[in-house]
Every structure is written in structure tokens, then in C-alpha cells.
Write a structure and sequence with these properties.
Layout: H1 2-9, H2 13-30, H3 41-64, H4 70-88, H5 92-97, H6 99-117
Helix pairs in contact: 2-3, 3-4, 3-6, 4-6
Length: about 120
């Protein structure tokens, strides 16, 4: 019984860390760059993608653990859609200049798909 409670206590540590890093990455990109005076789009879009992807991953994990709620499934679909589309809707030049945002989006998508398709 004690081992089961310890397992439940630490089950969302990775997704909570990803949510915090997503917020920090987004916040770091808001301030203007000294050279150009514009925001760092790669950090902003990467942070948004990481934040919403981690939320979708966390909801998918809860669903795998036995909590099936159609409202949460709808939120999960919206979050993963935002995580992917925030980078996919940019132009190709932005993707070439900011490969980190593209890598974050790809890794979020892969992690989510592995959680959804795992048995």
C-alpha cells in the first residue's frame, strides 16, 4: 500500500517540470532583443508549444490511469492542437531561423503520441 501511494505522489513530476519550463521559456522570449528590438519568436512559440503539449500529455496520462472524462478529452485535443499549430502555422523562414521551436513542437508531439498509443 505504501509503495502504491509513493507512486501516485510522483506520477506527474515530469509534466509539471515541462509546464514550468514552458512558462519560463515563454517569459524569456517576451522581452525585446537588444540587437533588433523585436521579441524572440522562437522562445515565445516554443514556450507556448511546450506548455500546451505538457498539459495535453498530463491529461492523456490521467486518462490512461483510469479517469475518463469527455470534457478533459476535449481540453486535451485543444491543447495538443495549439501545441502543434502554433509552430506549424508559421512560415518556412521562421522555422529555419528558429529550429528550437520546431524541435520542441516535434518532441511534444512524439511524447503525446507515445502516451496515447501505449498500452
Amino acid at each position: 500500500m505504501l509503495k502504491k501511494m509513493e507512486n501516485l505522489e510522483n506520477k506527474h513530476t515530469g509534466s509539471m517540470t515541462a509546464i514550468i519550463f514552458g512558462i519560463l521559456l515563454f517569459a524569456s522570449g517576451i522581452g525585446p532583443l537588444e540587437e533588433t528590438g523585436t521579441i524572440n519568436g522562437g522562445s515565445v512559440f516554443g514556450g507556448i508549444s511546450l506548455f500546451f503539449g505538457a498539459i495535453a500529455y498530463r491529461l492523456a496520462k490521467k486518462r490512461k490511469l483510469g479517469t475518463l472524462n469527455y470534457f478533459l478529452v476535449a481540453i486535451e485535443v485543444v491543447c495538443i492542437s495549439i501545441a502543434v499549430l502554433i509552430v506549424a502555422m508559421t512560415n518556412q523562414e521562421f522555422m529555419i531561423e528558429n529550429p528550437i521551436a520546431v524541435l520542441i513542437c516535434a518532441s511534444v508531439t512524439i511524447a503525446y503520441l507515445r502516451m496515447v498509443t501505449a498500452k
